[in-house]
Amino acid sequence: MKTLTIIGLGAGDFNQLQMGVYRKLKHAKKLYVRTVDHPVLEELAAEGVQFESFDKVYEKHDAFQPVYEEIAERLIEATAIEDSIYAVPGHPLVAEQTVQLLIAAADAGKVKLVIEGGQSFLDPIFGALKIDPIEGFQLLDGTSFSMHDINMRQHLLIAQVYDTFSASEVKLTLMEKYDDEYPVTVVTAAGSAQEKIITVPLYELDQSVEVNNLTTVYVPPVRSQEAALRDWTTLRQIIATLRGPNGCPWDRKQTHESLKKYLLEEAHEYLAAVDAEDDYAMIEELGDVLLQVFLHAQIGEDQGYFTLEDVLATLSEKMIRRHPHVFGDVAVEDADGVVANWEAIKAQEKGTSDKPLLKNEYRASSALQTSYNYQKLAAKVGFEWPDVEGAWEKFAEEWQEFRAEVKKGSSASRLDEFGDVLFTLVNLARFYKISPEEAMLHANEKFARRFGYVEAQVKASGKSFTDFTLEQLDAFWDEAKQLEKE
Questions:
Q1: What is the pLDDT of residues 423-436, one digit of tens each?
Q2: pLDDT tens digits along 188-221
Q3: Taking the model in full, what pTM does it have?
Q4: Of 50, 57, 148, 215, whose CA is between 20 and 30 Å from 157?
Q5: Cα(146)–Cα(158) distance, integer angstroms
Q6: Would you state the torsion angle of the CA atoms of residues 226, 232, 237, 238, taken in this order, to the nearest 10 degrees?
């Protein structure tokens, strides 16, 4: 098997090229280069060094990944015939996807690989920007990174920013985390005679700066919480500060038990925002729900029982485990199949137990939800009507029994029979896949909204409620309904 030797051309001009690398390139019998767009290659060509580039491969594809894959395949084919040298910008092991593909091929026995030197662009970049990498830095690929990869508190270097289009894509991704005015620095040909360093507001990254194959975009770390409001770490630090020794007295005294009612309230307010189809309200209310999650996690960490990482790990592991049709090789036909598979996995996780089936289904915060949970679990083991008609007949039966108790029963018997009516209504909701809790929340919100209109009309008249008849108040109610329809 012949050998493919990979050499780095360095990060700058010919004067920065290492002597050993120069000699290998000068005497190469078969030399391939990923692209001719590098200052070293201009000098080598002037000296009569011949090489074959893969620039035409870029023109064949609309994305970078297939370009890299084709280059790797062609190099493997060429090396099967003769020893070859492949030269890449910078260092072969820094931001070079074709080399990673060739390493994988070598591991699979498809090619014999030797990787030799070449100066990466990192050293001259650190020198040009005067930053110490020990403070923490990230090196990201401008063609494939996402906002989720960004650590805003570290030095951020983005390579593979070739042209205006790639610069625009990088800008849009950064804007998902950083303010439009945040300063970014564009470094080109660092350490060479052609070195250029320009700092611009983020929004100008693709407008007033020239970029090429030797360009790196630098984003400095944020220095304040206000500059990193879209970063998860910021919220965590805020909560830790509020719960800390010099934090807020109210936050410091909260417990899991004292916060229960707030979590329930915030969840209900979010559901109301969903019903109102108000995106801005959903953002705010989801934030309030998230606040409760972070507070509970911080309390767990303060007490030494669990951390936010434990919550994330448990949730992530469960999502992967219960979605084998996505993360494994299980096949499902539709959403019903997903639910059935989920329940089967859930039952397997819990295993067999002697404890009562309904033991963990009680919800102190909601009798409606408890009823729904009881009936749903009972139905899973076969204790339910064969179809919805049985549920309707049961409701009619319980309604008549309640009406009978209203006429001749005691307070206790009326309470008992009315409870049965509500229970059968919850069962009907389950058959029609309606959340009784959500339905009740919706009804309450609707009543409050319409009654608010009635109250506003009464106040506008300068009178009090007692000055109006029920018919007059009901007319205001009808007006509120009509306005909603319009």
A1: 999 999 989 988 88
A2: 888 888 889 999 999 999 987 888 878 899 999 9
A3: 0.63
A4: 57
A5: 11
A6: 60
Q: Determine the Cα angle at 24 with ends 18 and 28, to 5°.
A: 145
* Virtual torsion, Cα 314, 317, 320, 324, nearest 10 deg: -110
Rounded CA separation 202/36 (Å): 30
Q: Predicted confidence band at 484 (pLDDT cuts at 50, 70, 90)? A: confident
CB atoms within 10 A of CB 246: 7
Residue 257 has pLDDT above 70, yes or no: yes
Tokens describing residue 143:
């063609």
One-letter identity of residue 210: E
DSSP code of residue 208: S
Q: Which two tokens stand for residue 472?
A: 């007059």
Q: Residue type at 474? A: D
Q: Strand 196-201 vs strand 183-188: parallel, antiparallel, or unpaired?
A: antiparallel
Q: Which of 426, 417, 445, 425 is nearest to 369 (CA)?
A: 426
Q: How distant, in Å, are the alpha carbons of 27, 41, 87, 92 from that of 51?
A: 11, 9, 9, 18
Helix, strand, coil % over all residues of the chain, rounded to 5 = 60, 10, 30
Q: Band the pLDDT of 275: cuts 50, 70, 90.
A: confident
Token pair for residue 369?
């939800």
User: Residue for token digits 């625009």?
Assistant: 168
Which residue type occupies 113?
Answer: L
- Distance (Å, whole) CA 57 – CA 73: 12
pLDDT digits (tens, 9 = 90+) for 78-118: 999 999 999 998 888 888 889 999 999 999 999 999 998 77
